[in-house]
């Protein structure tokens, strides 16, 4: 799902020799370039910081290579960082991302690339970006950064086996041994679109909440499936919704991992019995 690192490097190698003094022109960000919609401006410079000169042949198709990573929500400013390179704002001077923004995005998003066996591209070495905060795009405020840091975040992990034959007592044991347990409905989109391939449908039903945040858990589990693509593939069927109970832990550093997965069939009495008994169960 993530773009190959060799492709990513080929997109970015052109950025190294880019001459800030060269002649540029302003163009509207095209509707087809949806990854950079709603970034606060509507016009971009060409050539961009990657050296792309053609919207149709370079900028639009190359921008789509970033979509899978951005859909994971790996950092609140990942989209701003990417779009400042592929669709720089059209002002009197070039505005690059600050080195500190690059570091913040890299530290959050590089582990996701590592999950797919890829490294943060050398062409995006943060040292090449300016350090002066007043001449570049700075990162989020310290308050926002702290809030993001303490929010539960999905982690790269091996995918647990999906359990289908079990007794309700083993399910209760799983609830006792893990920090949270939730009931979710998942599906996979039939055709490629601007939306993520894997989707958590409707609301998340808490069995035990643990340290999860009610308003954040839906997007957190959505990101978990996108980051752990093998799990997303295993849990979903194209065009068909499936029910599961996911049980897992929130670590001290805020990372979330799923440890047990139970598939909930319509006529399965064991999960229903376990959930009912859990309300009064003592571990």
TrEMBL record:
Disulfide bonds join 102-126. The keyword Disulfide bond applies. It is found in: Secreted. The keyword Cytoplasm does not apply. Coiled coil: none annotated. One of its GO terms (molecular function) is Wnt-protein binding. SMART domains: FRI. Residues 156-283 form the NTR domain. Residues 21-139 form the FZ domain. It holds the Pfam family Fz. Keywords: Developmental protein, Differentiation, Disulfide bond, Secreted, Signal, Wnt signaling pathway. Belongs to the secreted frizzled-related protein (sFRP) family. This is Secreted frizzled-related protein 5-like. It comes from Acipenser oxyrinchus oxyrinchus. The gene is SFRP5.
